[in-house]
Amino acid sequence: MNPKKHVQDCLGFLFLCTFIIVCCVLHDTNVRLNALVESQTTCAAHLSESIEQLDTMIVAQGERIENLTNQLELLRKQVQALQEFENSPASGFSEMNAIRRTVFKVCAEYGNIVVDSYLVLALIQQESGFDPYAKNGPNIGLVQISTRWHQDRANRLGVSDWYDAESNIRMGVDYLCEIQGEVQKVRHTCDARLILMIYRLGYSEANRLYDSGQIHSYATSVLNTRDRFMEGV
Q: How many whole angstroms separate alpha carbon 183 and alpha carbon 203?
């Protein structure tokens, strides 16, 4: 055997083995790098999604803080208005003023949800014109609460005389609180237009109109009256 040829064959074989080993190492490294890149890409996608969710939460919290600030300001105005009525020597001589005082009193009792007393006054104006004995089918009293749908509410609140001004107002305010709480829970808003439409039309029809961008004339009329009450007109 030629020693030189033997050495060349051994070197060739060694080179081939080395080449195969290097290729395997490179392949394995490439696989690991691809897996690492894919993992980092997935992490980046998850991080981006988390940031987006955090931004959404921050916006929602901002809206809730704004709603709370507005409600606190409304409560301050209601307390001030009630104090003015208490200190007014003429406040007890007008039936309408007596109703107004009752509205402020009842609204102030619902501390868990701030009820806009001026909105309640405007609703009373729209529904009954401040006539405590108004009746339209099953709808009774100042807030035209329905005996068909709210008998359980009357039982819970201990109401026996639906025409009694305070009892009637209390049922109406309780219903508005219920609507407002549900709207806040589902939509994270206190849009008075939607609350009024639900009061007038019920949940299904009111939500259908609201989602299509329509505002019922009832809500617009009540809110216009509310603004006039707040301005003292």
A: 10
Identify any residues that bridge with 139 across adjacent strands, giving them in sequence order: 136, 146
Spatial contact of 165 and 102, defined as CB atoms under 8 Å apart: yes
Spell out a b/e string for 57-89, using b for 16 or more CB atoms within 10 Å of the CB, else e: eeeeeeeeeebeeebeebbeebeebbeebeeee
Q: Which of 121, 127, 113, 87 is nearest to 228 (CA)?
A: 121
What pLDDT, in 10s, does the model give residues 56-85? 777 767 766 766 666 666 656 655 655 555
Sheet with 139-140, side-by-side order of all strands: 135-136, 139-140, 145-146
Whole-model pTM above 0.85? no
| Residue 25 to residue 37: CA distance in whole angstroms | 18
C-alpha triplet 81, 85, 90: angle, nearest 5°: 150
Domain 95-233 has CATH 1.20.120.450: no
Rounded distance between C-alpha atoms, residue 167 and residue 145, angstroms: 11
What ranges do the domains of the chain cover? 1-87, 95-233
Q: Which of 84, 90, 103 is CA-nearest to residue 232?
A: 84
